[in-house]
Amino acid sequence: MLNGLFGKKPEKARAEALYRHVVAAARSPDLYARLGVPDTVEGRFEMIILHCALVVLQLQALGDVDDARKLSQALFDTMFDDFDAGMREMGVGDSGVGKKIRFMAEGFYGRAEALRQAAGEEDPGQLQAVLARNVYNTQGDDPRASALALYVNSTIAGLDAQGGAALLDGGQPDFATP
């Protein structure tokens, strides 16, 4: 209790460190130059959501571990605190921020669930379709989505090898190189 009053909870500090790595990976110039992610506010949002979802899914893979749930929630909160601050900097008024954040949170949950389901499928077309729809705003066969799916699968493999426990213990997420 006192830690919450006089300093950050441990999971909040850890979530902020994880979030810095998420944002760094999401801002990799190669995602935009080589993989064709739109270099727009929406494209950057999609990349932050994607990378954050990959970390959250890795933490969820630990199962019913209280520390993993707390860290996952703190990471989500940190991400949306950042989105809130960004919208305010862009001039979105107080009355509009809450609605936009709610819409963005629903988008996060939907995208994370679609990513979880698609990543578990043997058919690579499932993940490609999710990425085409969410990142590129296209339907059907999109070569950019194929390339991004390879990156996502490499990242998932790296995170799986690393394990969620390493993230709990302060490890940096092992994101692939685009």
UniProtKB/TrEMBL annotation:
- Give the highest taxon in the source lineage: Bacteria
InterPro entries in the cross-refs: Ubiq_cyt_c_chap, Ubiqinol_cyt_c_chaperone_CPB3, Ubq_cyt-c_CBP3-rel
Q: Where does the Ubiquinol-cytochrome c chaperone domain lie?
A: 34-171
For this chain, the family text in UniProt reads: Belongs to the UPF0174 family. Belongs to the CBP3 family.
UniProt name for this protein: Ubiquinol-cytochrome C chaperone
